[in-house]
Angiotensin-converting enzyme (Piliocolobus tephrosceles), 707 residues
Amino acid sequence: QTRPGLSLLVLLCYRQLLPCLWIKDEHSLDDFYNETKAKIFLQFYDQTAKVVLNQFMETTRNYVTNITRKNQEEMLHKDMERSQFMIYFGIRACLFKVAQFQAQDVNRTLRKLQNIDKAALPKDELREYNELLADMEMTYSMAQVCLNETACLSLEPELEEVMATSRNKEELLWAWQGWRDAVGCQIRTTFEHYVELSNKATQLNGYKDMGALWRSKYELDTLKQDLEWFFQELRPLYLNLHTYMHWALHRHYGPELIDLRGPIPAHLRGNMWAQSSVNILDLVLPFSKKIPEDVTKIMKGQHWKSEKMFEDSEKFFTSLGLLPAPPSFWKKSMLMRPTDGQEVECHTSAWNSYLDDDFGIKKCMEVTIEDLLSIFHEMGHIQYFLQYKNLSIIFCEGANPAFEEAVGSVITLSASSHKHLLNIGLLSLKHQDSEDEVNFLMRIALEKIKIFDGTIRKDIYNQEWWNLRLKYQGLCPPVPHSEEDFDPGAKFHISAGVYFLSLVLQFQFHETLCKASGHMGPLHQCDIYNSKIAGKLLGDALKLGSSKPWPEVLKMLTGESEVCIKALMTYFIPLLNWLVTDNMQQGDILGWPDFSCSFEEKDTDKVTFLNLKLDPNQAKFGYWVLLALGFVMSLVVLGLVCRLHSLEKQSLTQDTEIFSPLPNAYFLGIAMEPRQTAKRQWMLLGLCLVLMLRTPPWVRAEWWSWD
Ligand SMILES: [Zn+2]
């Protein structure tokens, strides 16, 4: 139940309690915004934020688990209240003179408060922003693809199921295209506007673009270069994996669908967004005679239910000595898609309501090993919430966004190990030889390695999206796409940076925790289940939330203060070795030399100027030069007109004064009779005018569109 207006009431009380926070006169300002006052200010923030955020989260939870107009209205209302709250504290946080403060955490907290995010938008635009977001969510959740008038499929679970299990290229294309038609094109304009407003909010917060804002959350200047470096390190594994899959899919679908020198069509990768390819393991299994046991089938055979899946993941966390989920968790979570026709948002997520142990998970679960592992991941988020819940509310978040994701994922690395699945009775074959191991690692690689970049800008979403896909993943849209079909709209989370960093981090964590648990042998065989030492190490890091800069938390956990890709490479080394040998034997081409989809690499930063591709700044300079030339031309013409006028007058006087000595006139330095000079001047003037007025098409077109 929500308490309408309570947050505003708290704000009002707060105003009464701290009347001194209101600016009285300018001279006392500097003394006033001192460190002691800052601490009191933050205490008040903490108490009020709990109430405001809790109300907002509560209405959000209501909305996503029961999509109705009324619930949407309530959520939007609470969102506006939250924004006003953020503005109130954000503005005041700016007034403190943090440079003189001693306590580092006070500085960091005030800096965090200053970023008020979308609340920086003017009120009507903020309202619009929230509405756009809610509308997209509604479109996305309710979209269906219809087979005929009576049978329609929604994304989860039906269409996902088609993408995962169908091996029929027409059917796959139908589902892939159908979903994009149902969502992408509908969301496109909404999304464009949404991005526009997001950019505006970002700039109002003082950041250049969303990328800069995203990077600021990492408090690390070298992040961009670091990510690029990781990608280079990962490249051999990635290219070899891609090449091998290419060849395997070519074998199955034939040359008319798979061009060995081009990218892999996106609809053939077993997933609506071609990110995880684990569903097509059967087509790309390295040792096809050694088919691994089907864990999903075993789960179904053992009559697993959603409750058991959650209990098992909770058991894993408690075996490490970590905290159990509170009783309210089991009441409030949505584990299955409701069967009474209630509309819900199925996208899996965990939420924190910031009050009274109120955490939960929303998921439309199916009994599969993939869903079991995704519950482990979500329970990782819940564990994080539980560990940092006693901190000041502003630190109740992951050390950085990628940390949050890596925590759940590191547990899935143990939970999906052969050893663990054997222990919980989901596998029966005890021994794994080297061929089984390569098969096993292929499965993990298909599941984990899915790199894509999320820096997508207006006008070029679609183009850029596929260009980036080509660059990083070598995926190609199966049918020619135009800007009209809008792909990113079909996927809500375009946050590749978080994803990629968390990929690297989870293996780094895994290596550390395995070492702590006393694991010997290859990294991919490690299962930290039952290790209290590993659990304590992890728990201690989680307890810090974002109260310390993340390199410090990383150092505490792993002993290293930098993100390192070594563990990831160690984990996959047996697979990489096998892939390299196999690809060499096949004589396969690495990568995708022919970018044969109809999308050429487009350097979107450049603009065309006089048929040259230039930086916008260079082009701007060029236009100024043109403008200056034009101005000089006009002066020349004006000069010519004056001179012509005087020449005409001269020749007129000459006609009347026959006996005067012949005056010389000059044309381009040559002395001649004034009348002749005048004739030539007329011609030159005409030429200049023609040159000036005949605006070349490339200037005309771009002069006016340039801003
Ligand atoms: Zn997550």
Summary: Residues 278-453+491-562 form one domain. The radius of gyration is 33 Å. Residues 377, 381, 405, 408 surround zinc ion (CB under 6 Å).
